[in-house]
Every structure is written in C-alpha cells, then in structure tokens.
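Researcher: Structure for this, please.
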Amino acid sequence: MNLHRKLSWTLLLLALAVLFSCSGQKSGSGTNSVTAKRVGAAAILTSDIQVSTSPFDQSQPAVAFDTVNHQYMTVWTDARNSSSGSLDIYGRIMQARNTYADGIPRFDNTTTTKTGISVNWVPASTDLKITSSTTASPTPPKIAFYPDPVDSTKSKYLIVWTDTRNSYSQIFGQFVRADGTLLLRDAVTPSMSGSANVPDNFVITEHVGNSLPAGTVTVKGQYKSPTSNGSISINSTTPTQVVGTNTTFLSKISTGDIFVINNVAYTVASVTDDNNLTLTSPYIFPTGVTSLSNLSYLSYSFDSASSSVTGNGTNFTKSGLTPGDKIQINGIYYQVASIATDTSLTLTSSVLGYSGTYSYTTTSHLSQSSPDLVYNPIYGNFVLSWIDTSDWDNDNT
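Model: Predicted structure, token format:
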C-alpha cells in the first residue's frame, strides 16, 4: 500500500513538473519572451534557455529540428519594430550538441555528466529578421526542415506565415539555409543587399481577383456565335425573301437557324447564295411601309453544347483556379469541375451561351490564412495547407 502511494505521488509530481515546464512563453515585467527547453522521456533534463534576449514582446513560437546538423530553429512573432505599425517574424538557430572525448560533436539529449563530455546549448546565429515588409502584420509562423540527402550544406528551413502587405491576406514564405543564411526564392542563392544578408519573402498563394485574367477561352455552347455582316433589304411583295448586300449567307447561315430583324426572330427556310435567303414566315412591315433597306440583322445557329473549355494564353493552374471555383464566360458563371492544364478545364455543366472565343473572369480568392507546414521525407517536398476564402464558391472557405 505504501509503495502504491509513493508511486502515485511520484507520478503526480512528475506530471506537474512537465506541465509547468512546457510553456513556450515566459512572462516577466510585462514582457513575453521566447524560451526553449529540451525534454527527455519522462524527465525534464535542463533549465529554460532564453532564445531571444530582445526586450520587446515575442510570441507564437514554432520550432523545427535539423536532422543533419543536430540543431533547432525557432521562429516567432516579434514586436521590436512595432513603432512602424507592424509586427515581424524573427528566428534563431540553436545548436544542441555534446562534444565527446574524441572531439566529434554528437546530438545527445541528456545532461548526464560523463568523462570527456562537455554539454552545451550554443546559439548558432543571432536573431534573424525573416519578414521584409514593414506592413506585413504577420500572424503565427510555421516552420519545417528539408535535409538534403546529397549535400548537407544545401539543407534548409522553410518558414511560412499569413501576410497582409498587399492589403489582403496571403501566405508568404522564406527559405533559410542551415547555417542561418537567408536565401532567395530559388532556395539556393543567398539573398544579399550589398554585403548584408536580407530576407527575400515570396508569395505562395495568389490573390485571384474577379477581373480579366490572361488570355481568352474557346467554348462550344448551345448556339454558335451570331453572324452579322453587311446589310439586308426586304420588299412587301415578297415578304419572306431577304436580299443581302456584302453578306455571306451561304457560308454562315443554315436552314433552321434563327434570323433576327429589328429584334423580331424568324426561322430560316432556305439559303440560296451569299446574298439571298428565305424565311419560313413573312416579315411584318409597319403600317404604310412597303419596303425596308440597309437593315442590320443577327443570325444564330444551333450547336452541340460541351462542358470543355480551351484556353488561349491562359494560366488556369498557375493563377490558383481550383475545382469548385466559378468562371464567367459571355455573362454566365459556370462551376469548374476539373483543371487539366493551364489551357484546359472542364465545367460541371455544358455551356449555355454561344460557341466562340471570349474573355472571361474567375472566382475571387479573397484571402488565405492560418497556414500549416510539414516536410514529407517520402516524396522529398514540403506540404502546405491553409484556409482559403473566396466569393463565388458554394462553400466560401
């Protein structure tokens, strides 16, 4: 019974110790600071280590472990430049190494004193400013590490966050080499301004406005694009006969097409040549009028509608268009079912309007926020997710 009670009290004290030691923020004198602690299985192994010594508030930390160089990088939201009206993302790399008697540093998550071993937690860099804009107002950063399997010097961290520098929320990113060098968006070249290493933030998600994107689209709708060239004349003595001037009836119009004169629709009975056709019903003249000339017209041909859309100079995939978004073609919005390439997509329904080539608009992706990030070692790539808000989707997020 006594042994059972002792074990119970031991486990309770251990649980409380772990609970009180795992805070990511340390409060003192009204200022939050980022601290770190290595924790082993069922034991707290070292005291808190303050990651940043800046006297301003730091919050919302995230951390990733470098499996190649045995070190951590911590990133956080920082208020040291808040006088400019914006927060920033800062980071710092910390080495967690033990040097053995043979002089080889090895990661050893213990603080046990052993002969010939010196235990240390070494800052591998000063605080690194990750964000480059003074109007970014970033929210909680996320970080993941890529271990290069061939060249360890090419291993790198990717930091992502929600950013409002463009007056709407987007996901931005920054690559940082394992030695703390800030990289260009190509993830290889150091980002330099003179002799200074500076951030090169890049946008990951695009704000796709409901405006005119690049290129045009060609579709096959219920009707072909209307024909209207030259002019026509009609005489009351032969009210079903239409005579054209500079027209192309034979090549553009077929029996059964709709022929509109003065906003009244007639059906084509036959086409004789490019300048003569016959209607199925007589043209209705106004009272007292026996002939009309120099009239304009519109002729509509029926077509077999399709749900396929072919782009001409378009960037369907690169612009961030996704299934469920809407695309406006010739005044009608259609929902996107799938996207094959930058120049090919399929709608959930056939085109209701006319066949032809048109400009178009797409769903507005108004903002992206709350990113999360992991590195996938199986496929060797970063996987990023976020919340996306748009204006025309069935589900707006």
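Researcher: Any notable elements?
Model: The helical segments are 2-21, 249-252. The first helix runs from residue 2 to 21.
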